[in-house]
Amino acid sequence: MKGLPSLSLFFWNQRGFSFEVEGACKSLGKEYIVRCGVDFNGTGYLKSIGPTPRRGKFQPDPDVAGVGIISSMIAQAIAVCLLALWTLYLKKRNSKIWLEFFTGFLFSVSDMSSILSLAYIINFMLTGKCKMSTYHYYIVLDTVLLACSTIALTFHSCRHVFFSTRGWILRVPVALLIFCLLGIFLSYQFFVHTKNNFPEWVPPVGRNDSGLLLPVSCFFDIDLMNGKENPFSPHRQIKKPGKPGEKKSKPVYVHEPLTETQLDRLGHPIQNYKIPHFYLYGLLTLSLILAIIFNIWQHFVVDRRARASKTTPKERRGLGRYARWAFRSLVYGISILCTIFCTVHMLKLRSWAEHSGWLIDESESRWYSLGQLLPPMALGISLFMLLDSWGEKRRRVKGAGLNLSQKGE
C-alpha cells in the first residue's frame, strides 16, 4: 500500500537546508518518478525530454495554465489596480455608497485570488512537485505573485474598513501564509542555488524546444540537479581526473556536456539569481510591509495628533501629506509593475506552448470545460451579489431621504 503524499518538502541534513522530492515521488508509484533526461538525434533534433517520449505528447495542465483561469486572474488583477486608484477619487468626493461597493468588490477579488494561490501551493507540496513542468511552475509563480499584488493593494486601499470586517480574522493569516510559503520556495532557489542553472524564463520566438518542458524538481532537488540525466547539471562542466601517466587527446567530463547545437535547440540556461520573480516578490513584500507601517502610523500618530489638536477634517488631511503620498505611490507603483510583468510573462509562455507542437491536446485553450468556466463565473456571481447589495443600500438611502423630506413638510 502506497503512502499518502507528504507535505514536507524541505529538510535539514548534512547538506544543509535542502529540497528533496526524489524519494517521496518514487514511493507514490512509477508514474510519479521524476525524469530529467533529454534525447537528441544525430542532427541535434530533440526527440524526447523528461517524461515526454516525443513531440506532441507533453501533458497539459488546464487547472494551472487553462485560458479561463489565466484570463480571470489577469482580469481580477487589472481590475484591482484600476479600482484601487478609483477609490482615491471616491474618498476625495466622500462618496460612501460607491466606496463601499468598490471596497466589497476588492475584498471579493482578493479572497478568490488568495484561495486559488493557496490551492496551487498545497497541490505542489502534495503531488505537483513530482509532475509539474518548469513551464507550469512559471505560470503558477506568476499567478501567486498576482495574488500577492492583489492582497497588498487591497489591504492598502481598504485600510479604513479592513479590520472592521469579520473576514480579517481569516484574511490576515491566509495572506501571511501565502507570502511565507512563497518566500520559502523563492529564497531556497535564490540563496541556496544562487548560481545554479535554471531553464530560460521566456523562450525566443521561432524556437519550439525548451528546457521549460522538464520537471521543475530537476532544478530544486539536489540529487536530480546533479544527476547525469539533467542536461543543465553542473557536473557536466567538471572534468574527470585522468589516470597517472595517461595522456588524453580530449577532456573527459563527469557527465558529457551538451554540444552548442543541442543547447541552441534546448535553450541556454540562466542562473537562479537572474530570474526576476524573486525581486518582484521582494518588492511586493516591501509593499505589504509599507502598507502595514502606513496604517499604524496613520492611526497612532496622524489621527491622534489631529484629535488632540482638534483640527478640522480639511486641516487633518494636510498632516503628513507628502509622506502619505510617498507611501501610497510606492505601494501602488510596485503592485502595478508586478501586475504588468506577470501578465505579459504568462501570455508569452502560453503563446509559446500553444505553438510549440509539444502539447498532447488543446485542453489548456478550451473555454467550455468546467474548470475554465468556474473562475469567471465565480467572479460574475460575486459582482452580481455586490451590485444587488449596493442597489438595496441605495434604495434605503433614498427612502430615508424621502421620509425626512416628508417630515419637514
Automatic annotation (TrEMBL):
Does the keyword section mention Membrane? yes
Q: Has UniProt tagged this entry with the keyword Endoplasmic reticulum?
A: no
The transmembrane segments are 64-89, 101-123, 135-156, 168-191, 278-297, 325-347, 367-387
Q: Which InterPro entries does the record cross-reference, listed alphabetically?
A: Elsinochrome_Biosynth-Asso (IPR053018)
Keyword entries, A-Z: Membrane, Transmembrane, Transmembrane helix
Ranges where the record places region Disordered: 231-250
PANTHER family, A to Z: INTEGRAL MEMBRANE PROTEIN (PTHR37577)
Q: What is this protein called?
A: Uncharacterized protein
Question: What lineage, starting at the top, does this entry show?
Answer: Eukaryota, Fungi, Dikarya, Ascomycota, Pezizomycotina
